[in-house]
Design brief:
Two copies of one chain form a homodimer.
Chain A: E1 12-18, H1 26-42, E2 47-49, H2 63-69, H3 77-89, E3 92-101, E4 104-113, E5 116-122, H4 130-133, E6 143-145, E7 150-153, H5 162-170, E8 175-179, H6 195-207, E9 210-214, E10 219-220, E11 223-224, E12 230-232, E13 238-240, E14 249-255
Parallel strand pairs in A: 1-2, 2-3, 7-8, 8-9
Antiparallel strand pairs in A: 1-14, 3-4, 4-5, 6-7, 9-12, 10-11, 12-13
Helix pairs in contact in A: 1-3, 5-6
């Protein structure tokens, strides 16, 4: 079981940047993201989350297009740009990126901080035509030890699988950063809030962790996105957002990651300890 | 993977009876539940769910009180009464009951149908002072093959554990009936919908199953309950409810359980098939 421990940490301002990447326009996307990261840092944020595939856009027409836009991590231009920005501003950045590693492409996210590159997560559960472009993530569900705390990463459809958050919580994650490009779900009633908001609130509550979701907005090659970026506390209640469905905006919350060490719901119950591993198949 | 199969089944009306059991008043609780079951059956319901501990009330003062109110299943008076009613009305009933088995007490639910007793589920995850009264469920997560379809059962705090619904869905459950006595959660903002609604909607969506939750209302020995009974479809959207927070009422929906056999979200993705068992720890 995970307990709050170590010296008290100062409150942490976390921001999720909801914006609209343009397909294929890597330089413009990096420039726009950089502006928004600088604004968030100026407002005091020290952990900043960007959407999935924030440098390239999402709806690739072919594997060739995806391959041409993908870059090595951390030694490609997008990763270097975000690394330099994190070092300059003294912030941690979690950003979705199309990663090229040898012949393989991954829908990935990197985490980089004031002292440089920290690590990469590769999306484990691929959505729709991502299966045409990308290889399935092969790095498991790493928890990154950072100066801020223990940070996990999940990407979009990963959040449909409760196993994702269980793995990260059991691995000690205090916050899971979610670069995402949420799309409407089957049979979704008009005007209904994104199913993803429900899924991530449930995951935060059931695991006693913070979750910070940065979604994109806009319609790209016919595919609409949901917006509604959301920061959730370890009891499952929203701390910031949901953001709008269709406008670029940054949502922020000031949090104490140590709260994720207190998994108790009352004097008898604690959400990880109460698991019945003895009868789960 | 589970596929829709077999002959088409007629639409099924399912009802969740939200009412207010009185602590210790077994005869009165059975009488009140019987009236409400008869009303639901008269309206066409063939699967009827009652709350957790529907025959006894919830807040036992001591293990002795719980033991005095608990009964054998299916050979105690409450189980026999529900069995007789199901046979008479030609319905299936899922009802929460305090079960005595030898020296052990269980927070249990029975399922009984037109042809008699079908089975018992014993709550796996015990909430708060239930740990003083009850033994942890030792029957796993059974899926009952009934004339209506494949029915799983979970009770209240079981729903806080995504493993519960995964086990049941992987076991073939098309619908999970949830007798429950939901209580407010820590840090719950005033007026916020019950966290349980979020948890069960997420579980229905992530597993492609129907979930029918029958909660109680009222305040018992100082403990308030949430109401907000809910019937959810296999894509996670509500089909009936949430019911009120504080009034007895029955919610109903007409469903096709075969929909739970179609787990696909699009031509590439299917919620159980897409699990990455190869990297879950």
């Amino acid at each position: 079981m995970i307990q709050a421990n170590g010296p008290a940490r100062p409150p942490l301002r976390v921001s999720c940047i909801q914006f609209e990447p343009q397909i294929g326009a890597v330089d413009a996307n990096l420039a726009r993201a950089s502006e928004l990261i600088r604004e968030a840092a100026a407002a005091g944020s020290r952990l900043i989350v960007l959407p999935e595939l924030a440098n390239t856009g999402y709806v690739f027409a072919s594997r060739e297009e995806a391959a041409a836009l993908a870059e090595p991590v951390p030694d490609g231009p997008s990763a270097r740009a975000w690394g330099a920005l994190a070092a300059e501003l003294g912030v941690h950045i979690v950003a979705g990126i199309a990663e090229r590693a040898g012949d393989a492409l991954y829908n990935a996210a990197l985490i980089t901080g004031p002292d440089g590159y920290i690590g990469t997560y590769r999306k484990a559960h691929l959505w729709h035509r991502e299966n045409v472009f990308f290889a399935k993530g092969d790095l498991g569900f790493p928890v990154f030890e950072t100066a801020l705390g223990k940070v996990g990463v999940a990407i979009c459809y990963d959040g449909w699988f409760p196993e994702t958050f269980r793995q990260l919580a059991l691995g000690g994650a205090e916050i899971v950063c979610v670069p995402t490009n949420w799309v409407p779900m089957p049979d979704q009633p008009a005007g209904e809030a994104a199913m993803a908001n429900t899924l991530h609130r449930a995951a935060a509550h059931s695991n006693g962790i913070f979750i910070a979701c940065a979604d994109r907005v806009g319609v790209e090659r016919g595919q609409p996105f949901e917006g509604q970026s959301l920061i959730i506390g370890p009891k499952g209640w929203p701390l910031a957002g949901p953001a709008s469905r269709d406008r670029a905006e940054t949502i922020s919350a000031v949090i104490d990651l140590a709260e994720a060490g207190r998994k108790d719901l009352n004097e008898f119950n604690s959400v990880l300890r109460d698991r019945r591993s003895d009868i789960y198949g």
